[in-house]
From TrEMBL:
Source superkingdom: Bacteria
UniProt name for this protein: YjjG family noncanonical pyrimidine nucleotidase
Signal peptide: none
SUPFAM superfamilies, A to Z: HAD-like (SSF56784)
GO molecular function: 5'-nucleotidase activity
Pfam hit, one: Hydrolase
UniProt keyword terms in alphabetical order: Hydrolase
Family annotation (NCBIfam families): HAD-SF-IA-v1 (TIGR01549), YjjG_YfnB (TIGR02254)
E.C. number: 3.1.3.5
The protein's enzyme class: hydrolase
Origin species: Polaribacter marinivivus
Amino acid sequence: MKIEHVFFDLDHTLWDFEKNSDLAFQKIFTEQNITIDIDSFLYVYKPLNREFWRLYREEKISKEDLRYQRLKTAFDKINFSVSDKLINKIAIYYIDYLPHFNHLFNYTFDILDYLKEKYRLHIITNGFEEIQTKKMKSSNILNYFENVITSESVGVKKPNPKVFHHALKLANATANSSIMIGDSIEADIKGALNIGMEVLHCNFENEMIQTKDFNSIKSLIEIKQYL
């Protein structure tokens, strides 16, 4: 069947999470007079954040634990003493500041302008409910999408098939008329494949991929080769 619906992930796919996150931390560290090298902190924090997000996605930790533990563990690893009060303050400020930085990946507007003339566009994201729409408003991409489906609104997270089925129902779409585009092989690609959707993997880090079960792109503009 012909593709009619394009579902995008948001963070690490359209919205440049790493760049925006770095800027949010720089602002917080400056305001709170946290006297450690920001690059040293981020070097330790980023892989920890990915691991805690994996645990959160697998329902092994709560949202509150994710927010606290990723910071606490990072500070502990660089031997920087910080109170729970300050950690909780940083966690709150981070969520407040993050959506106000609006860097997108190259060609985001080009590809959305191209796709909107041919397809109905939607977002499926595991990101926190309270900030995903803010991110999209701040970066001026919200108006491209008919539906923004967050895992919190469904009650489970990608790759759980319930998220994808809910998104398809909301969009009045079928799996075989839809494609999922995202960066996470586990959450986006395998999750969508498991319910019969077409997929396109965003491999902007040019990582080695062991399977040929799906196509990958290194830039958003390459989507034109498939749609």
